[in-house]
Amino acid sequence: MVPVFSPLEMIFVRGEGSRLWDQQGRDYIDFGAGVAVTSLGHGNPVLLKALQDQAAKLWHVSNYYTNEPALRLAKKLCEATFAEQVFFCNSGAEANEAALKLARKRGVDISPDKIEIVAFNGSFHGRTFFTVSVGGQPKYSSGMGPNPAGIVHVDYNDIEAARRVIGAKTCAVIVEPVVGEGGIIPAKPEFLKALRELCTANDAVLIYDEIQSGNGRTGALYAYMNGDVVPDILTTAKGIGGGFPIGVMLTTAAVGNHFKPGSHGSTFGGNPLACAVAEAAFDAIRDPALLASVRDKAERTAGRLRDMGARLGCFSEIRYQGLWIGCELSERFANRAGELIGKAAAHGVLALQAGPNVLRIATSLTITDDELDEGLRRLEAACAALTAG
């Protein structure tokens, strides 16, 4: 394999619920959910049935045609959100690529110099050359020559900085309602409100990147539903497929109609298998009882983590929205999140990083109380090992 990853040494062979087993038969509690992807756990029987049923009917027909699962999923997404149109693709990066291209296309349709995209430091929007350039982390975009022109970065949650750069040449503002890779940092409501007002005043589109924050992760179907601001474009992926690759761009007809046949495309986008699985996942995720359970488990988990941090001295702050939790390491253990993840894996619990100083937890939305308790117990043992060292 090309050396772009640095995986831990275990190789997983089976998963059930929020547990994984490696080649040696050792079990792990999964607190990462494949980076917020396996939203309904491993081996979910509802998703498995949807995949098997569709696999027996139709796998692929290309975008010269459409198919029933894609049409059903598009209708459900539009009925449940602000959207009137959707574009299906295969990943979050592709969803953001589509959104940014659409925003540029709309901008140029209005005026040839309306091409500027405003984004925020610490953000992450994907790994294509365009999306990694829009993302606000130079470590991901450097070393490949000049980035595309017309991209401006300012600090997240800084209203005055946004006011200085959003103007007549702005075609889009792209923002994560909760910054994920940059540390699980929720946007301030007044910041999002200001972005909406600035976009409206300058005829720019507001793009919400909900690749991770969408699909029940924050305890709402989509994070924008936690506030009063409605975007013009929303991108999502990860949890909507429950582990099957799919990405979606949702938008209004007024914005979406700037694309014409041939403006954009995706060979596998809208694939019947992906859409059938995603439809089953979406139906399960939007259940009010499941979303209430996410909010309840998040409160209890954050409380346990705060207590753990106070007793062991490992965490200085716990930030969260739903089952998406960032544990800021205390000054004594600054920038050692990677080390803590290694110790956690050694103690049988899988977690993530959100920068060098934040342990990230993103369990499945359906994690059981027993799995959650066991995972927290193992994480506490890992934190104790870190502090003892």
Automatic annotation (TrEMBL):
Transmembrane segments: none
SUPFAM superfamilies: PLP-dependent transferases
Pathway: Amino-acid biosynthesis; L-arginine biosynthesis; N(2)-acetyl-L-ornithine from L-glutamate: step 4/4
Chain positions recorded as N(2)-acetyl-L-ornithine binding sites: R127, S266
Annotated pyridoxal 5'-phosphate binding sites: G92, A93, F124, D209, E210, I211, Q212, T267
Gene3D superfamilies: Aspartate Aminotransferase, domain 1, Type I PLP-dependent aspartate aminotransferase-like (Major domain)
Catalytic activity, reaction form: N(2)-acetyl-L-ornithine + 2-oxoglutarate = N-acetyl-L-glutamate 5-semialdehyde + L-glutamate
InterPro entries with a match to the protein in the record: AcOrn/SuccOrn_fam, Aminotrans_3, Aminotrans_3_PPA_site, Class-III_PLP-dep_AT, PyrdxlP-dep_Trfase, PyrdxlP-dep_Trfase_major, PyrdxlP-dep_Trfase_small
Protein location: Cytoplasm
Database matches in PROSITE patterns: AA_TRANSFER_CLASS_3 (PS00600)
Record EC number: 2.6.1.11
Location of N6-(pyridoxal phosphate)lysine modifications: K238
Cofactor note: Binds 1 pyridoxal phosphate per subunit.
One Pfam family named in its UniProt record: Aminotran_3
Keywords assigned by UniProt, alphabetized: Amino-acid biosynthesis, Aminotransferase, Arginine biosynthesis, Cytoplasm, Pyridoxal phosphate, Transferase
EC class name: transferase
MF terms in GO: transaminase activity
Major localization class: cytoplasm
Necessary cofactors: pyridoxal 5'-phosphate
Subunit-level organization: Homodimer.
Additional information: May also have succinyldiaminopimelate aminotransferase activity, thus carrying out the corresponding step in lysine biosynthesis.
Family: Belongs to the class-III pyridoxal-phosphate-dependent aminotransferase family. ArgD subfamily.
HAMAP family reported in the protein's UniProt record: ArgD_aminotrans_3 (MF_01107)
Entry protein name: Acetylornithine aminotransferase
Species whose genome carries this gene: Viridibacterium curvum
